[in-house]
Amino acid sequence: MKDLVEFSPKELRYLEQQMVGRLATASKKGAPHVAPICYASNSERIFIHTGRSSKKVRNIMENRRVAFVADEYLSWEKNRGVIVQGGAEALEREEEYELGRRLIYGKDPKWEQEYPIIEGEEILLAIIPRKVLSWGLE
Question: Would the pTM of this model clear 0.85, i.e. be above it?
Answer without folding.
Answer: yes
